Each structure stands twice: as C-alpha cells, then as structure tokens.
Amino acid sequence: MRRVFPAVCAVAVVVAGGWVHGRWTNRWGASDELRQAVGRLERVPRTFGDWRGTDLQLDDRTIEAAGIAGYVWRRYENRVNGRAVSLLVVCGRAGQIAVHTPEVCYEGAGYEQVGSASVYRPAAAAGAAEFEALRFAKPGPGPSKALRILWACRGKGSWEAPAKPRVAFANEPALYKMYVVRDVEAADEELEQGAVGVFVEQLLPELDKALFAGS
C-alpha cells in the first residue's frame, strides 16, 4: 500500500496538470465557439466615422507562433486630419492568445518600454472597458521611433488588460485581443487628445457591435 500511494499521487498530479493546461489551451474547449468568434471578425468595419481602413497581412510564421486562429489588421487614416493608427484584433484559444502581451512582442522586436504602464478607460465603452496604455521607443542612431499602444483582451466579459491574462481568461473558449498602435513624434501626446484615444472612442461601439451583438 505504501508503494501504491506515491504512484497514485504522481498520476493525480500529472492528470491535474494536464487538465489545467487543457483548460488554458482549450484542448477540449468548444471549437464551434472559436469558429464563430473567428467568423465575426469579418464584420469589423473598414470604414466608420472619419476613419478609412486598409487591410494588412501577417506572415504565416507569426500567425502560427502566436496561435492566431483569425485576425483583422488594418491601417486606418482619418480623412479630415490625416492621422493614422493601426488596429490589430486577433482571435484564438485563450491560453495562446493571452500569453503574448506588448511587453513580450515589442521588446522582442528591439523596442524598450518608456515609463510605466497606465490604465485607459474609454468613455464610449458600453461596459467597464479598461486598456493598458504603453509607450515604446526603439533606440539607435538618428531620431528615436516611438510608439503609443493601447491593448486589451475580451472573452465573454468586457475589454480588460489584467496583470495575469493567461490566468484571468483561462476558462474562455475563445479570446479576442486588440492592439491599437500609433507612431508618435511627441512622446508626451495625451491619450484623450491624441489620435489613439480618439480612434478607440469611435471604434469601440462599432467593434463591440461587430463582435458581440447577438452572440
């Protein structure tokens, strides 16, 4: 009996670990829900308000590495003032999508975070949407290239950017993640007056209607 008990415990640990990993990756998740979530990306409008979007393409290697089941990547330009913002909305299994945050993606591409992250709450959100706001810069000779980034994830709740997204979204059968990115010349460009904030305020009602109305 003494020999059997450790073996039983070991099996239990392996099974429990496999169950947790399965939940994170949705190995046994509702694949229909994921397919439906990916299909709704087609509804994301190319045009809304004063913004006009142009489709961009991710390479296959990036799609596979990030576990992306579907995505929309566009460069939107404001027809009134000419300001441009890029929008990337990806969808996939929560365990894969949640693990790639801007700190991982952009620092891996040679950028350095400038200052501390902050929380941005768009007034236009129907619910309690919260985005993480970040600044990055790429060091090197010549003028520094700076980025202003807002990002958040959403499953069945509201848009949010928790400190531990993989844990927070572990039970979601499908997860959306959104990046809004702008090249900025003024490192202190305020969100409320800057193109990123204006874009998100106008985008959210249209995006939520496209991805969640009737779901």
Topology at a glance:
Blueprint: H1 4-25, H2 31-39, E1 47-48, E2 51-55, H3 60-66, E3 70-78, E4 84-92, H4 94-97, H5 102-108, E5 112-113, E6 118-120, E7 131-138, E8 145-154, H6 165-168, E9 175-184, H7 195-212
Please, could you describe this protein's structure?
The protein is α+β, with helices and mostly antiparallel strands and 215 residues long. The chain has one domain. 33% of the residues lie in helices and 27% in strands. Strands 1, 2, 3, 4, 5, 6, 7, 8 and 9 form a nine-stranded antiparallel β-sheet that branches. Strand 7 and strand 8 (145-154) form a beta hairpin. The chain starts with a helix and ends with a helix.
How does the helix and strand content classify structurally? alpha+beta
> Helix count, per DSSP?
7
Total domains, how many?
Answer: 1
Shape: globular
| Through-space gap between termini | 52 Å
Low-confidence stretches: 1-30
Classify the oligomer. Answer: single chain
- The gyration radius over C-alpha positions equals 20 Å
Average pLDDT reading: 81
The biggest beta sheet is recorded as: 9 strands, antiparallel
* Secondary structure: number of strands: 9
The amount of helix comes to: 25-40%
The proportion of residues in beta strands is 25-35%
Write down the secondary-structure element order.
HHEEHEEHHEEEEHEH
